[in-house]
Amino acid sequence: MTIPRIRGVGLLGLTALIAALLISLTGAARVAAQDATPSPEAVDMGVCTEALGIGEAGDACVNIIHASPDAPAVDVFVDGERALENLAFGKASGWVALPAGDHKVQVVPTGMMADAAVIDAELTLEEDAAYEVAAVGLVADITAVVNQVNLSELGDDEARVRVVHASPDAPAVDIAVTGGDVLFAELAFPKASGTRTVPAGTYDLEVRVAGTTDVALPLPDVTLEPGTVYSIYAIGQVADGSLTVLPIVSSTTGATMATPTA
Fold first, then answer.
1. Spatial distance between the Cα atoms of 170 and 168, rounded to a whole number of angstroms
2. Using CA atoms in the order 248, 254, 257, 262, what is the torsion angle rounded to 10 degrees?
3. Which of 7, 36, 94, 200 pairs with 129 at a CA distance of 20 to 30 A?
């Protein structure tokens, strides 16, 4: 059942990206979206409906991500109506447009009603802004985290990337150019990096133990496409071998993509 106020579902999807990456995010159980930290590199965050090709002028845009490794599939209620059904771990809803303003978002085990919510969040969505809303942490401590996505215009040969840490038992890491500079430092659960605009192309990167040059994981041949924004989530757990990557890939040019999955 789709809530009447949701407009223009736009599906996003996956271009060739990283083989494995140790990163994602978390925050407070009840969180206002306006408190999400914007990209430090730019005040202009773009107009999400234009960048994603969904909704109407003045709407906000939302992508819901299931990143809680031991939680069952969930349904999502928006403003008291069931808006999304059977979202499994490692899946993203794809982008939807919502009217800007205040919204109540509740996450329940699939098939249950809103009064069984394991997450109950009041979100304030700004006009034209894009937000990723992630359910993170183990189910005993499951919480909702909101991060704004920078969809401002990129140059013809530019891409934008950030990494986020949602693996509850993964250690703190640095992400660096192979043998070179650190791009994202001291990423620990439940942290999210800022975003960086970089030349599109293929990179050799490595995951290091935070604060050292010890390589925990080489990441060769990381391809970043032009005009594309990447939020790279590492989800799952190290202990049980379920650690995996969920790249959320967004266009800044109104392109419609396929929904990313792990």
1. 6
2. 0
3. 200
Nearest Cα to Cα of residue 154 among 62, 225, 221, 205? 225
Cα→Cα distances 139→33, 71, 72, 130, Å: 22, 5, 9, 26
Vertex 130: Cα angle to 112 and 77 (nearest 5): 10
Q: What is the pLDDT of residues 201-252, one digit of tens each?
A: 998 988 788 999 988 777 888 889 999 999 988 788 888 888 777 889 998 8
CA 208/CA 215 separation, integer angstroms? 4
258 inside domain: no
Q: Distance between CA 68 and CA 190 in Å, rounded?
A: 12
Q: SS3 of 234, please?
A: strand
- Is residue 46 exposed (0-12), middle (13-18) or buried (19+ Cβ within 10 Å)? buried
Residue 102 lies in a domain: yes
Question: What's the number of domains the chain is made of?
Answer: 1
Q: What are phi and psi of 50, to 5 degrees?
A: -75, -45
CA distance 165 to 190: 6
**206 is written with which tokens?**
């490595």
| Other beta carbons within 10 Å of 76 | 24
| Global confidence as pTM | 0.79
| CA separation for the pair 146, 36 (Å, rounded) | 6
pLDDT of residue 238: 82
CA–CA distances in Å: residue 15 to residues 140, 149, 160: 34, 18, 14
Residue 261 lies in a domain: no
Query: Cα separation of 225 and 188, whole Å?
Result: 27
- Expressed as residue numbers, the domain containing 219 is 7-251
